Amino acid sequence: MHRHRTTVLGTLTLTAALSLSACTSDGPAKDNPGKTPVGASHTVKTAMGDVKVKNAPKRVVVLDTAELDSAITLGVKPVGATRAGAEQAFLSYLPKSRTTGITEVGEIANPNLEKIAGLKPDLILSSKVRDGGRYQQLSAIAPTVLTESTGYPWKQNFLVHADALGRKPQAEQAVKQYETHVAAVTKALGGKARAAATDVNVVRFVEGADIRIYGKQNYIGTILADVGVGRPAITDKAKDGFSYDVSPEQIDKADADAIFTSTYGDPGKAKVTQTTTSGLWRGLRAVRDDRVFQVDDELWIQGIGYTAAGRILSELQSDLGG
Hints:
The structure is a single chain. By secondary structure, this protein is of the alpha/beta class. Helices cover 34% and strands 19% of the residues. It contains 14 helices and 14 strands. The strands form 3 sheets. A 6-stranded mixed sheet has the order 1-14-13-10-11-12. It has a 6-stranded mixed sheet with strand order 7-6-5-4-8-9. Strands 2-3 form a two-stranded antiparallel ribbon.
């Protein structure tokens, strides 16, 4: 099994921001003629309705990994963020220089409201699936922009984040860079037809749960679809398009030309060794052909954004392009 190194390759290089004109203004520009009026704001369409936010918020709190990736991709360092897991504050694939100084404000889906309020934010970013139940409390602290959910609709969510952050030009650049990268990876895999002829599975070992064979309606599924690689028939049986869960005794269902594996939590409790030393595992096509690649769970599964996607694309090219 191949293991990827976890050194940080860096985030997307984005062009300098273009100045944004205000959609609405709280008052005239008295001392800065020709510039955005002091206190200027605009309306963002969210899962909870229209929300009025500053055109260029300075003190942003993000309450999930996708929002953190979005902010960093767009050149914004949040003042506060929830931690990705119990052992580590923030996503390991993000450069330390971009996360140093961010205040941890609790766990995802269980943020510390007092800590958030203490940071005096002018914008809070999250999703309804994570924080819809505490929306009123968060809104009392600062304008709160929630998307409906996370994961699969990450590209649409990113545009909402960019709108809220006043960073639409940078978002356009990030999207273009991603699309260019995708095209380069597909070409490196031998073109569309050859890429489509290679069936790829993503298998996640999860502490205290069944093994997940990822379907097509999730973050990593969209990236694989953009590159155009094939997906085994089992992915069409994924519950709600998300994952088809199996026990170690059913791991033969993960058969594919290439398999990417990640582990969430303790490997022993996730049954990694039990599964990967079995006869069923050794009989998989990808195992026989030495095309099993162990990848970083935070990067491939938890990150959810354009900075993560750039690194995933590079790994796909490196692993499948040979």
